[in-house]
Every structure is written in C-alpha cells, then in structure tokens.
Amino acid sequence: MKIAILGTGMVGNALGTKLVQLGHDVIMGSRTAGSEAGRDWLKSVGGKARIGAFDEAATFGKIVLDCTNGANSLAALRQAGEANLRGKILIQISNPLDTSKGMPPTLTVCNTDSLGEQIQREFPETRVVKALNTINCAVMVEPSLLSGDHDLIICGDDAAAKTQVTALLGEWFGWKKENIIDLGNISASRGTEMYLALWIRLWGVLGTPHFNIKIVR
Ligand SMILES: NC(=O)c1ccc[n+]([C@@H]2O[C@H](COP(=O)([O-])OP(=O)(O)OC[C@H]3O[C@@H](n4cnc5c(N)ncnc54)[C@H](OP(=O)(O)O)[C@@H]3O)[C@@H](O)[C@H]2O)c1
Questions:
Q1: Distance between CA 90 and CA 115 in Å, rounded?
Q2: What span, in angstroms and rounded, lies between the C-alpha atoms of 153 and 171?
Q3: Ligand 1 binding pocket mutation candidate from 13, 15, 69 (most atoms within 8 A of CB)
Q4: What is the pTM of this model?
Q5: What is the 91 CA–ligand 1 centroid distance (Å)?
Q6: Cα–Cα distances in Å, from 73 out to 28, 78, 90?
Q7: pLDDT (tens digit, 9 = 90+) per residue, 76-123?
C-alpha cells in the first residue's frame, strides 16, 4: 500500500519503519524535501522508502498518517495541500501540545474544540480518524509490548473510514478489533487529546512511557 507519513519525529520514525518492514511503499514528508531528519530515517530503513516535502508525500499516499507537531499540524497539512488530501483517510495522531512554558505542557486547543475537529473543519473532504494519540509510539506499532489486554480509542465522522482504520491497525500492528473503542464523531477528540494531561503524569510516576489503559465494564 502507498502510505504517506507526515512528520519526521519519533512517531513518524516508528510508524514509517514498521510499515517499511511490512513491505509497504512508504513516503515520509517534511517541510523541506531533503530534510536532515528525513534523510536520517531513509538511511535507517536502508533506502527502502522515499522522502519528500509534505505536499509530495500527501500526493503519493493513498492513506496519510499525520505525525506532525500538534501545535503546527494545521500549517503542515496546509502545506500538504487540501487537494492532495481530498477523499483520503487521514489517521490523525498528533496532539496539540504547547511546550512553550515548559513541562507539563498545556494544550493549544481544548474543552470546546480540539485539533481533530479543527483539521476536519478545515479539510472537510478528508476522512479524519483520530487514533493512536493516547499511547507511546513504541506501543502504537507493537501493542504486544504490554502484557495483557489494553484499549485504543478512535473517533471520527466517517464510519467507513473508522472501520477501515480498525482493520488496518490490526493488519499492520496487531491491534485486536475488540480492543478498539469507537468513541463516536470527531468531537470525541477533545477527550482523547485532554487525556494527555493524565498520560503525562502517569508517565512521570510509572517511569516508562510503555503503558496503556483498559476500559473495564
Ligand atoms: N512521542 C510519542 O510517542 C507520541 C505519542 C502519541 C502522540 N504523539 C504526538 O505525535 C506528534 C508528533 O510527535 P513527534 O515527537 O514524533 O514529532 P514532533 O517533533 O512533535 O513533530 C515533528 C514534525 O512536525 C513538523 N513541524 C514542526 N514545526 C512545524 C511548523 N512550524 N510547521 C509545519 N510543520 C512543523 C516537523 O517538520 P520538519 O520535518 O520539517 O522538521 C516534523 O515533521 C506530536 O503532536 C505528539 O504530541 C507523540
């Protein structure tokens, strides 16, 4: 599958590397076509992928993973281009963290709005599915890293897109369908993004980013 990873940080690296290992045709996008971070990643996967600017990546990918810096995701997606994202599923992973005042970060948008919603509003013809933003990137690509069952929350306005993403997360990374909770429309992004305040404190107390939640009924 032709997959675009927008973002050259640790999330883009983890997802991109795993998808290349699975044999997919992956492009990693950046603000500039030949960014150093992009070149480093390309080298790390033995050249078995492509790199390019955000718009080249979005054009190439049949499905697009948004791993851009959350405070700047809208700018990155504007560069990716509305027309290049039209009709495509965008797995929207980034969180709108504001680290400008140090740790712990706050959110650039919350309570009555969210990054997921801002993106869906600005790109109405893109099928935005908020997913994977509640866990560390090592857990995203290998849920079996944690012992026992644990859950992933997704949301979005397009039911068919969510069904497809659920299947892909199983196929790519081994997420079990019964562990993926569909929280409804894209406004549920508010909750999954605000969960970051709790996630960061848990990280500090547990001393590892490799954990997740299980919803017990
Ligand atoms: N770390 C985790 O395990 C984890 C887990 C869940 C969610 N997240 C979220 O995932 C997102 C990505 O995190 P990360 O640590 O991998 O990467 P990051 O450092 O937050 O973001 C890197 C990407 O953002 C782009 N970017 C930065 N400033 C920009 C601007 N002004 N305009 C346009 N693009 C800009 C960079 O472009 P260039 O390539 O051009 O530099 C780069 O591709 C974050 O929102 C984070 O909160 C992280």
A1: 13
A2: 17
A3: 69
A4: 0.98
A5: 14
A6: 15, 8, 12
A7: 999 999 999 999 999 999 999 999 999 899 999 999 999 999 999 999
